[in-house]
Amino acid sequence: MGKVVVIRCQGRIVTGDETLSLQQDIERHARATKKIVLQLAEVKYVDSGGLGALVRIAGVLRSYNGDLKLCQISPFVLQVLQATGLLKVFRTYASEKEAVDAFLEGPQSDAATPARLGATVLCIDTSLDLLAYLSALLKRSGYEARTTNSVLDAKTLVNATKTCVVVCGPGMRTNEFAIQNLRESARNVPFLMLSSDFSTADASHAGMDLVERLHALLNPPQP
After folding, report:
1. CA 116/CA 140 separation, integer angstroms
2. Based on the domain organization, do 13 and 71 belong to the same domain?
3. Range with lowest mean pLDDT among 17-21, 27-31, 112-116, 197-201
4. Total number of domains constituting the chain
5. Which domain, by its residues, includes 61?
6. Which tens digit of pLDDT belongs to each residue from 149-174?
7. Which of 20, 86, 90, 214 has its CA 20 to 30 A from that of 59?
């Protein structure tokens, strides 16, 4: 529609072939325009990795003065975005026409960033999509989130920042030596290990569970 591409999604946006297919389609269209609308009326499920992919893609498009707008969001996806606090990360519309018209109206200001609680959380994993999801989730929950897929960079960040918790994603479970090495560099910092199925779990349930675990870890009950 003019210089705006509308992609209508069906089924699931999940870690693996589905997310890769969507990403490739967006990248193909992005050669011509950085203005993309995703119509999600028939999306029945999204996992943590899939939602992270949307967050990451939106960030990339915005860095080129474009955007990833969402429209006709299905009840399931809406519930996930509301539960994780990520609804405000995206610009959402009731119809394709409204989303397209919003592009034609010009750039819009970003939603206000929520106040931080002062706790810095460092997330490390091999998946850039999952890191994007964790970063958006934690920032919307009031934490200062830092992410990396490099153990060496994680060691530097732990020592250079006042990291309160290190969150290790499922991709790090196969590298016990690296995690042990990182633990030795941050002996006084607690580690929180995510389950092996975190990336493929329902994004809202996985996200809410992580936020609750972080809150309990950083706010232990008083004797």
Report:
1. 9
2. yes
3. 112-116
4. 2
5. 5-104
6. 998 899 899 888 889 999 999 999 88
7. 214
